[in-house]
Records
---
Amino acid sequence: MDRTTLIAGNWKMHKTPDETEEFIREFSGTYEAAPEVEVLIIPPFTSLERAGKLIPGTGIGLGAQDLYFEEEGAYTGEVAPRMLLACGCSYALVGHSERRALFHEDDPTVNRKLLAALSAGLSPILCVGETLDEHRAGKVAEKITRQLSADLAGVGREDLKRVVIAYEPIWAIGTGETATPEEAQDTIRLIRAWIEEHYDAHAAEGIRILYGGSVKPGNAAALLSQPDIDGALVGGASLQPESFAQIARAALDR
């Protein structure tokens, strides 16, 4: 089964609406969209509406960095799934390690957000990954499978088709450290095997699994050449149109 490569840029807390507009104009003039590679930007909430108005016809998709699991109500500071849809989003990150570590989101919360995204018609990008201590202790499989079991609870086979999984070793996010292509492949293969065991072989073959963690133009091709890596969740290198375009071009050759 052919899986469309997904290159997603998580901008975190960077770029105003004006800066977002400038990025979209520069990137769309630098990178020529191709059907075999899906390109996605994930700006801050404050830039989503502007981006949603600019991306039609550019080949760029739009995602949100987070969402809340309620449809509306007295939840000061939160953003509902339908609000993201209204801005033009088709994806939403759930369970990013920074949300888990800095904002104390546990697996039940991640699961509720993932189910809310699916219910609203968004495709969740579920982030999983281990800490450096867990990595050194050989507990990668234990940590990843525990997250998958909890975060995908209640997700049926049909809904799973809309889920993307991003493996991000926490020790490689923003540190300049990167899992070797072989390490990334081994863990992502483990994730695919878990999907096969808990769903079926067809589901495992169809689900897209990304690698994230200091992905940049210099290592993108090697990572994307691995058979089970279906794209990249890019952090800092997605903030510059040219470097993000180089990563997207590397995906064309996988």
Note: The chain has a mean pLDDT of 96.
---
Amino acid sequence: MTLKKPVKKTRTQKKSSFLEKKISKKADLRKKDVVKLKANSLKMSVFISLFALLALELFLKNLLLAAGYSIIVLAIVFVVLMQVPVIRMKKRVKRMENDLAYFLLDFIMELKVGKDFLSALRKICTDENFAAKEYALVINDIDKGSSIVEALRKMNTIMQSTIVRRVNSNLMTLYLHGNRTDSAKRFADELLLKQRIESKEFSGKMVVFALVFIAVSAIVPAMFASFILIGSYFMKIQFTALQVFVIIVIVFPMIDAMVLMLINSKTPLFLKQG
């Protein structure tokens, strides 16, 4: 009589939620990293919502209404914190795209002086720009045993960028079909032309931004001061000293800061670094 071996019970793996799958794909995070991010985000959002609950209860004098608002705060903070890695990845991609034109032109120059593909890539990756640092990771994958094509395709998967894919497609063509650099040179020129167009468009928008900032920082506060004086004499509008102090010292500078943040967000990255 043969004895049957006991069958080991395997635990069923918990399926990832839609949010976890989305963040894992867009931020290039492993499953355990996403789980850790989820736990940390939940802890932080609970802490902030409890603080909001206490503050709202003191202000509203209604515990039930304050609890409802704090739950909304918890949900918003949790979603925002979960999106932080995605935002970081988008910024990483933008920084890389900003340097790709010059990276590609430098790489073509290295090929023209007679270096082979891998030697040229290693030389360019010693530069200090952001694209060189990203391609240094490609070199690292190649040194670990990946082929050049596999390493470039891995970068495409991580970056999720059309421009990065097109640059890597040109690099693969150079690697597989020899030093025919015309196509890569044309694409690098296209990227530079795109940057020049964005620079001209921003110069036009900057005139409007400057007018808005002048109005918010100088004209509006002056009009507010006049309104206080006229209103107190003719329209019986009353402002306490504390209210005037808060508006002038806190509210107007906050508006100025928001306008500056808007200008900064609309400024092309290559102009910030230039």
Note: Residues 33 and 118 are 33 Å apart (CA to CA).
